[in-house]
Give the backbone structure.
Amino acid sequence: MKPRTPAPPNLSRVQNIRKVALLLCLVAGIGVISVAHSAWESGSLAHEWIEWFGVALIVFCIIGRTWSTLYIGGKKTRELVQHGPYSMSRNPLYLFTFLGAAGMGAQLGSLTLALVTAFIAWAVFSIVVMKEEQALRAKFGKPYRTYLQRVPRFFPKFSLFRDLETVEVRPKLVRRTFVDACIFLLSMPVAESFEYLQDHGILPILYRLP
């Protein structure tokens, strides 16, 4: 008897997994920074510059995720989007999320923590992406397989950029993505609160990182 080929994952279910993964990423990132402290003293030039670098990454994340949604919003299950940010990277939404996660870690004035939180995001979403690719390969067939071969999974290949003269936009989805991405800004007051509690001995400092 011929073995049955496993059915590809349902895209709607994968999208739900993606939302849970984003929440887990945020929780994990906050968990990491709650017990860590920068090797640079609070208020020092290096500490402050790293924090501002993190703010820039978070702002870039918000803008990038919103830009990506202009192209993909409401279309992921209906058509193969290959323009704008999706002409350079197959997963620009996730790529900008990695930058936002790095920005979260940088709010404690540590480049090492920025790399750690970005890695957590990459590890979580890489699993989601593989599920998505399996579903999209089954749905779109050869055109998607060609797209897989031509466009990098995450890090963009700028020479591939191409755009459209007009883009059909769903404002509700764009607004939702913008608001969701702004959650990364919460890491700023959260990190400041953790630093205050650590400096006053209320929270433990398990490790100091440059």
The two ends are 59 Å apart (CA to CA). The domain at 12-30+41-205 is CATH 1.20.120 (Four Helix Bundle (Hemerythrin (Met), subunit A)). Residues 111-140 form the longest helix (30 residues).
